[in-house]
């Protein structure tokens, strides 16, 4: 089964993003999820940015289908959501 945790981080220094980058790869490995990090770059065209209004944003994709979007960083909530799939 293909399971991805996609972490979208801020285009500026974000403490919550830094903590997520440090902690999530190990958590994903333990739970059998692929970890993907994407930095939401500042661009000239707003349409080129990812549709995120809070950092970090975490998307859970299972078998190519988006299952859940978590806003902010709460490790306990992430673990609870990962166990669902």
Can you summarize this structure?
The chain contains two helices and four strands.
Account of the protein in words:
The chain is of the alpha+beta class. It has two helices and four strands, in the order βαβββα. It has a four-stranded mixed sheet, with helices on one face. Helix 1 packs parallel to helix 2. The radius of gyration is 13 Å and the shape is globular. The termini are close together. The mean pLDDT is 91.
Q: What composes the largest sheet?
A: 4 strands, mixed
Q: Output the number of helix runs.
A: 2
Tell me what portion of residues adopts beta-strand conformation: 25-35%
Oligomer: single chain
* CA-based shape: globular
The helix/strand series, from N terminus to C terminus, equals EHEEEH
Radius of gyration: 13 Å
Low-confidence stretches: none
Integer average pLDDT: 91
| Fraction in helix | 25-40%
Got a strand count?
A: 4
Span of the ends, CA to CA: 10 Å
> Which secondary-structure class do the elements indicate?
alpha+beta
The neighbouring-strand order within the major sheet is: 2-1-3-4
List keywords for this structure.
85 residues; alpha+beta; globular
How would you summarize the topology of this molecule?
Blueprint: E1 3-9, H1 15-31, E2 34-39, E3 57-62, E4 65-71, H2 75-83
Parallel strand pairs: 1-2
Antiparallel strand pairs: 1-3, 3-4
Helix pairs in contact: 1-2
């Amino acid at each position: 089964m293909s399971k991805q945790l996609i972490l979208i981080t801020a285009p500026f220094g974000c403490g919550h993003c830094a903590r997520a980058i440090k902690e999530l790869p190990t958590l994903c490995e333990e739970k059998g999820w692929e970890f993907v990090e994407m930095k939401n770059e500042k661009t000239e065209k707003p349409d080129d940015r990812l549709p995120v209004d809070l950092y970090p944003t975490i998307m859970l994709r299972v078998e190519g289908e988006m299952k859940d979007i978590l806003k902010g960083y709460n490790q306990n909530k992430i673990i609870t959501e990962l166990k669902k799939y």
